[in-house]
Each structure stands twice: as C-alpha cells, then as structure tokens.
Design a protein that fits this description.
mainly beta; four-stranded antiparallel sheet; about 0% helix; about 230 residues
C-alpha cells in the first residue's frame, strides 16, 4: 500500500545501507521510507524486534515467535528455513579467530527452547547456506542477552546481569559482576561507540568502556549525591 500510515506504534528503526532507506518494524508489519512510509511487498512478516545487515542481506530477528527473515532489497522478505532459525538479535563482526566476518546471533534455537543465553555464528545466515554453529552459552538462562558489540576488536556480549567477553579460544569471561545486584532489561540495550570509548545504557544511567575491561558510570549528575535523579 503506497504511502500507508504505520499500522501500530514503531518497535524499531534501521538505516539500510543496502537500499539507502529507513526501515521501520511495527508489531505486525515492515515499512520502508521513501517520501512516505510504504508497506513492504511481502506480507506476513510480523513480530520483528531488530534489524541488521551482513554480506548484502538485511536480517530481521523475530525472537521466539517466528523464524527470522532476510531480504536483499528490504522489500521482499524470505523466512529462514535453516534448522536453527530463531533469533533475538544479530551482529556482524569477525569470527572468534579474527580471520573472517561472520553473522552472530543471540537468542534461542527454537520457539520451544528456553536457552535465551545462546550465541552462534554463521558465514551467511541465508537459506541454502551453512547451518548455524554450535551454541556457546553466555552466563545462565536467568538473564537474557541484550546486545552484542565490539570494544577494540573484542567481542562483547551484554546481558541483563553482566558483561561478557567471548575470546578467540571460545573462552567466556564475565567482566561486570556488580550488575548482578542491579539486573535490568536496559543494561546494554543501547550501545554507541564514540571516539576511543564505547557508551552503553546501564539501568537508568549511562556507562563508559574505555578499554577491554575498564568501566565507569558517566553523566552530568554522576557525582551529585544529594539530589534524587533518574536519567
């Protein structure tokens, strides 16, 4: 439907370098922005919670509700038919050995699985490609993975209750055990690199990573202890 209004409230936005346009997911549909928001040509692609791009394809994670989908142009989408086809999020980054870029995904293997702390990689992620690698389990299942990102070429996995580094040998290193006392779905939900640091959401505040394992809380009111504040 050309020039359609969004059917419901936006869930996420994504700038696609592949088609040079904004994508928007609502609970029920995907829209592309030209001069107006336009519903994509493939119907039935609902429940998208996150987008990412890798090797000329856009990927749409749909959590445990449905198989993830991929598209070469952002308009026509295909559901994954790989054996492991559920994802809570994607991230394009080097493999653990640093020899090639791969697509990483977090989440669970299938709709009935409760292992929401799984991390897997794939060289393509599309139908007809290889199957997803065996899972690495990041922390325990009591806390979801909220984000995957890089710090100085180190692969980092943010969770509601900790931050982990996944090293070249497959080792999993917890780095912020203090978050176990401040578990939050907002921990690492938003991550942004800037200059030589990486900034991340930490509860109602903001955190800064200045090297592989150096962290600090930051913000205009961080040192102010005599007033109530919520950021």
């Amino acid at each position: 439907v050309a020039g359609a209004e969004l059917d419901t409230a936006p869930v996420c936005f994504f700038w696609s370098a592949i088609n040079g346009k904004w994508l928007c997911a609502t609970a029920g549909k995907i829209f592309v922005y030209g001069t107006l928001w336009t519903e994509v040509t493939t119907t039935g692609v609902s429940g998208v919670i996150e987008f990412d791009e890798f090797n000329g394809y856009i990927f749409a994670a749909r959590g445990t509700g449905a198989a993830y989908a991929h598209s070469a142009d952002g308009l026509t989408w295909t559901e994954s038919n790989l054996t492991d086809n559920h994802a809570n999020g994607f991230f394009s980054a080097p493999n653990a050995a640093g020899t090639a870029n791969v697509l990483w995904k977090s989440g669970t293997s299938e709709a009935t699985d409760t292992k929401i702390n799984e991390l897997k990689s794939n060289s393509s992620g599309i139908n007809g490609g290889e199957q997803w690698a065996s899972a690495s389990y990041i922390g325990d299942t009591a806390a979801d993975i909220t984000n995957i990102f890089l710090v100085n070429d180190n692969l980092m996995i943010g969770k509601k209750d900790n931050l982990f580094n996944y090293d070249a040998n497959g080792g999993i290193h917890p780095l912020m055990d203090d978050l176990k006392t401040s578990v939050s779905t907002r921990n690492f939900k938003y991550v942004a690199p800037w200059q030589s640091a990486v900034y991340f959401s930490r509860g109602n505040g903001l955190g800064e990573i200045t090297s592989y394992n150096t962290f600090a809380s930051v913000g205009a009111l961080e040192k102010t202890i005599d007033i109530g504040k919520v950021w």
